[in-house]
Amino acid sequence: MNPQEYHFKLPKKEFDKTIKIPEVWYPGVKKYWERCTTRRIFNPILGIKGIVIHATAGHSSAGAVSVMRDRKGSFHWLIPDEDEPEHGQIIWATVPETLAAWHVRNSVKHPDVNQGKNKTNHWSLGIELVNSQINDPFSDWQVKMAADIVKYCWSKYPNIEDVVSHAKLDPSRRSDPGVDFPWKTFKEMVLDGGMDDLVAFEKITENRLSNPDVESHEVIDGDVCC
Ligand SMILES: [Zn+2]
């Protein structure tokens, strides 16, 4: 399957609970936010319309976070590779969902995605999977974690609809998450996989929905905070 065709829509669905994901702040990442994020121009809950799936084209979580340190980009979550100790355990939270991360060029757009609107970073969330994209299969766990993050977002953001590859949005410059990413399996995990294996917690209140300053990430116990 061509990564430029990786795209599906999340049907409108009412959730009683918001899904919890095993996320931990990447140590020290908070100090990079000022240099590689932007305040969202849309409401950080109601204005979220999509999720963009990326792969790092690198070999480590540290290498991916160095992009944030160097002001070259940013993303909301990072899914560790097989040879990292966190693999199979936790995913890294790297930017608060309330902030726009810099994971897609602001000028790009696609007519199939959020009615052809640009400024994708402002209405989307970005997931990075650590993967070299060169003869490097994604692990089943990595794919499941990507699906679980999407389910979490689906349960939390009432207007979210598009799940799309970076390659579809910016085909002249990007091919991620690459030909090795099992998009069909991933899509089935999201749409048909159910929510039973995920820990749910109470749905956020209306009050939180209307507060643009809300810190959206829920952080699990034992977190190493920055
Ligand atoms: Zn990308």
UniProtKB/TrEMBL annotation:
EC number: 3.5.1.28
Residues annotated as signal peptide: none
Domain (N-acetylmuramoyl-L-alanine amidase): residue spans on this chain: 37-178
Record keywords, A-Z: Cell wall biogenesis/degradation, Hydrolase
Catalytic class of the enzyme: hydrolase
A Pfam family annotated for this UniProt entry: Amidase_2
Domain of life: Bacteria
Reactions mediated catalytically: Hydrolyzes the link between N-acetylmuramoyl residues and L-amino acid residues in certain cell-wall glycopeptides
Transmembrane segments: none
Keyword Hydrolase among UniProt keywords: yes
Full protein name: N-acetylmuramoyl-L-alanine amidase
Source species of the chain: Flagellimonas algicola
